[in-house]
What we know:
The protein is mainly alpha-helical. 80% of the residues lie in helices and 0% in strands. The longest helix is centred in the first third of the chain and has 14 residues.
Amino acid sequence: MVQQVLERALALHREHRLREAARLYEEILNQEPNHPDALHLLAVISLQTREPARALALIDRAIVVRPQTAVFHAIRADAYRILGRWGDAERSCQQALRLRPNSPEVLNTLGVVRFAQGQASAACECFRESLRLRPANAEAENNLGNALLALGQRLEALEHFRAAVRINPASAEAQTNLGQSLLECDDPFAAL
């Protein structure tokens, strides 16, 4: 019964029908309060609906049940990152990477955390490793561009912003960064 409800909830979640999926995850938790997958997926929805504190409370419960699940620690890192709890976010990223060393998503998150802490060089290393593991990642390309820009490496940053836009032309952030970077490189027509 629980597995069938979970499968229905996952299908709804994939269709971005978040309220309906959340209701089913909560239904599972009413029957099994420590169901790790329902806790995890409800935490994901909480992040998607901008409720990081709730996501953190849910994912902490899932980690108690399954402490060796890397993705749970990655979700915890994202919740801490959104809350601006950089040290906690970094520790959660490190734990996720101990459990799954080659996670491009976690490396990207770790880079964002390090960049927010003023560690642009360390952030670049994380973004580069993330891109080595998953080359066509617009978010990591854009993030690397931002870190390089902070280090004063405008031309290299420009190339990463261009790559981000090639991968995902709909990314407003990458388009804005590319335009601003082109403007700073004295190419106002391309910036427009």
